[in-house]
Recover the amino acids of this structure.
């Protein structure tokens, strides 16, 4: 009996396969085009057979064969199955990648965009609603239309997707929305500043919610939250007052969440908002829960605001004992050097700034600080020789703008200020230890060789 049934099944299957192959053959000319404009309408049974065949071909990456089976189904029953769109995207992308004719490539990418539109129009899927498909469309637009540098069309799709999906939005769509919004903002900061801020706030809140919910997307959401925070910090759109409005309630609600507090503190530090009471609150909560380099640095900043410089130094020492990366270590050393300067301990200020430079030799801020330390040092009783400290100070200011162009404006102002205190030509000429243009070693704790030069007349 089983043998008889098997023979009957084969007899039925073979004609159907033959029919599908015949359709594929008819579609051979269409394979040389983009999407054939007209295909003979298939019955539901034929569509189901072709669906099975093109899906299997896609699984085996036989995209040329899959196209011939897929196209008739796509045009006959666009509401039949989600595979028409998921497999269809792979098939059309394959054809796009191997195509060398510019006109055909343009038509193919238009067809890929149309595929998303028709999925929304014809196929209703509660699990993957229209907003989800718009996210896919936005990402594909960025992929296939790189000449659109701002990606305005992609932005609208991504924004609608995020608004529609909320916490169920794809992590990639959330990231891409901030990236595209950032590019648009950079094209016209006055016009798009509020838009970028709103997009960042929305995405940051959603990523935090995804992390809080837990599950398989937690790690990806944490990683992308750190990424969009960095993008926001680098944008120049950030304002410490706006930051406080965004994060005051978050810090209060997260007093026992060490990871979120750490993330907020890091963002505040990147933005230079470390004088904020919100930042201090986050640091205090975090340090009580689990002392880290970040929380210790935050408590140090709080001490500085209160002019408790000894306390700040102790907290920075704690931060340095726990820090795990060179970037933060160099930054803490620089900040600690500033505290020593506030304490008028210029030798320790310069020494600590040099330690930061030993880690990051291109941090111009450290050279500026060292120059200020040298200019403030008292190393000679002789008033003429004492002016030599301004030579080494100006050497440091020039070095700052040489290694770090972001310091050029401050460096030039400091050079203009302190070069006024160089010895006069007469002072240099009549002093037995000085010779214009000759090397001169500045004594005391500075111990650096510079060039003797007089004040410009």
């Amino acid at each position: 009996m089983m043998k008889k049934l098997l023979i009957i099944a084969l007899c039925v299957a073979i004609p159907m396969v033959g029919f599908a192959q015949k359709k594929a053959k008819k579609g051979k000319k269409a394979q040389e085009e983009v999407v054939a404009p007209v295909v003979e309408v298939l019955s539901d049974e034929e569509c189901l057979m072709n669906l099975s065949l093109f899906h299997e071909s896609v699984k085996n990456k036989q995209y040329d064969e899959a196209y011939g089976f897929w196209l008739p189904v796509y045009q006959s029953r666009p509401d039949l199955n989600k595979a028409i769109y998921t497999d269809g995207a792979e098939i059309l992308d394959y054809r796009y990648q191997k195509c060398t004719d510019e006109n055909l490539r343009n038509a193919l990418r238009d067809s890929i965009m149309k595929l998303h539109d028709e999925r929304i129009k014809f196929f209703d899927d509660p699990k993957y609603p229209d907003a989800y498909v718009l996210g896919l469309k936005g990402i594909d637009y960025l992929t296939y239309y790189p000449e659109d540098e701002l990606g305005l069309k992609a932005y609208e799709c991504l924004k609608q997707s995020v608004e529609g999906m909320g916490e169920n939005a794809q992590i990639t769509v959330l990231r891409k929305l901030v990236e595209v919004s950032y590019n648009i903002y950079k094209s016209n900061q006055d016009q798009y500043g509020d838009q970028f801020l709103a997009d960042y706030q929305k995405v940051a809140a959603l990523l935090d919610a995804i992390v809080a919910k837990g599950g398989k997307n937690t790690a990806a959401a944490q990683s992308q939250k750190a990424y969009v925070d960095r993008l926001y910090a680098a944008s120049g759109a950030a304002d410490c007052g706006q930051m406080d409005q965004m994060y005051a309630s978050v810090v209060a609600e997260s007093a026992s969440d060490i990871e979120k507090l750490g993330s907020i503190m890091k963002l505040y530090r990147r933005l230079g908002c470390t004088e904020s009471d919100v930042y201090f609150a986050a640091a205090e909560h975090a340090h009580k829960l689990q002392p880290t380099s970040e929380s210790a640095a935050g408590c140090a900043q709080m001490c500085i605001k209160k002019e408790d410089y000894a306390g700040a130094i102790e907290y920075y020492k704690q931060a340095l004992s726990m820090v795990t990366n060179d970037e933060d270590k160099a930054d803490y050393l620089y900040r600690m050097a500033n505290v020593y300067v506030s304490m008028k301990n210029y030798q320790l200020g310069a020494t600590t700034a040099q330690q930061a430079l030993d880690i990051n030799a291109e941090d111009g801020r450290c050279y500026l600080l060292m120059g200020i330390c040298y200019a403030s040092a008292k190393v000679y009783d002789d008033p003429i020789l004492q002016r030599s400290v301004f030579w080494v100070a100006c050497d440091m200011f020039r070095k700052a703008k040489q290694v770090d162009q972001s310091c050029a404006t401050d460096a030039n102002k400091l050079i203009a200020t302190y070069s006024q205190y160089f010895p006069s030509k007469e002072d240099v000429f009549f002093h037995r230890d000085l010779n214009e243009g000759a090397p001169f070693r500045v004594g005391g704790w500075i111990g650096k060789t510079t060039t003797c030069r007089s004040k410009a007349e």
